[in-house]
Amino acid sequence: MLVNPRHPALDVAFKAVAEPTARDIRLDSPVLSPSQTNNEAFQIFTAHPQLVGLPVVEAGRPLGLINRGYFMDSLARPFRREIFDKKSCTAFMDDAPLIVETSTSIQDLSFLVVDTGKKALTDGFIMVENGHYAGMGVGIDLVRMISTMQAQKNRIVMESINYASVIQRSYLRSSRGDMTATLQDHFVLWEPRDVVGGDYYYFSRFDDGFFVAVFDCTGHGVPGAFMTLIMASALDHVLTHENRQDPAAVMATINRMVKVSLGQVTEHGEPESGDGAAGAENDMKSDDGMDAAFCWFDTQTNVMTFAGARTPVLVSRNNAEDIDIIEGDRKGVGYAGTPMDFCWNNREVALEKNDCAYIATDGITDQIGGERQIAFGRRRLKELLRTHRHLPMSEQRNALKRVFYSYQGAHSRRDDVTLFGFRV
Amino acid sequence: MDDFYVPATATSPEIDFRFSSNTLGIRGESYPENATAFYGDALRQLRLYLALLDATHVEINVELKYFNSSSTKILYTLFGMLNDCISKGNDVTLNWFHDEEDETILEFGEELYEDFGQLNFRAIAVSAA
After folding, report:
1. Of the candidates B39, B80, B104, which has its C-beta nearest A377's C-beta?
2. Residues facing A57 on adjacent strands
3. φ and ψ at B34, to 5 degrees?
4. Residues of A in contact with B10 (CB under 8 A)
5. Assigned CATH topology for domain B4-126
6. Residues B36, B41, B43: CA angle, nearest 5 degrees
7. CB distance A339 to A375 below 8 Å
């Protein structure tokens, strides 16, 4: 079977990107003509122990391929040499080997080889140029070539993701700077699952307090990271001296901005699909947003004003046994299903000196692990925070991390993880 | 109409929609790279099935250990569709399986029940074998 899966005119275009072709794994091989005998074939196989197959070629055209194992086994039987030695070498030849043009891409070639079953992998295959015999290829070289190409592609993708991570981290620099300058005792545990991710935080200091946001954008990896930069730069634009004490209003503004900029609304300002149903079936339309906690903390009064989009704040009071969970509202920011004019609520939380407050994305509580292979859960998180409340924040972080890592054990990380905490 | 089946992978659940016996099942973990694409066919089939439904009892068994936020949105869409079909004279039982110690999954089920009150919601605690 002669296969030339690509139109010759296309080859020129494909050469420009230097995609490896069958030519790159072509081997020169001894060949036989049909007028030669089985004895001659036997001599060649004996002289070339590495040869898996021997092509038979007539007037430049491939006729077939002699498989070493089959040929040798056949001749090894009693009286076979005597009967067949002087007959044409086509006697034990496979007359329908895989034949490919040398210009066939490695990818197309690998599909063709797989389609022939085991045969082309074990016997090898014949290469032709414009129908004329040009050499042979063998399975091991094809596998080696595919592995190299795969490794190269992975390397390119990883280099690109690593650099994306440099950008994502750089954008955190001013938040980190403000945080360190404002908070005496605090920590951030920020661990994107795939080098970059959809979890992020934002911190901005003012004369009379600070604004902090922890958010979990849809997706993780590169798409998640795109979203975090959209959200963080939206915050940069929206947050001002005027609205700093009203996180719910900041959240509502960002909701509108994101819905408009990602086209998650119709011209009439209505969500394109109220229940998200139509969106779910159209994978080109964006239905992205974030779960988030936005907080304003007034350093004079120690009152925290908090607006939450499917994200709570946890408070560990100095004089209380239990950890308080202050729930936000149950709508995410920016999603197609969140109305344009949705209003989140501000909740005021009065804190006292030495109280600790924490914001976590769902990456910690939803992580699968432990003996029963179930989610870490809020109960465990609360228990941990309660146990370690007396420790300096940086040590709390280490303790949490230790327990969380050991809970996760050999399970893969399911999501990005972020936990922010500070002591008043 | 034909039943719809997708086997589970490490990052996506088994989907076992036996329309012929009005029994639907989702089982495993759900964090595919693109949840919208993964659930697209299942939701399309379900929509067709629900459109034909008339005074029928439907049972859906959900046994998920983990689902990411984009899968959550899909689940809301799915339960919304089931909830809506009840107003057309059908009834739907949602069997929500969770490990007896898994508060996270149980709480999510209870949230679903708050939002889709028409569903006959049954939380079923599973003990470790």
Report:
1. B104
2. A62
3. -135, 95
4. 412
5. Transcription Regulator spoIIAA (3.30.750)
6. 75
7. no
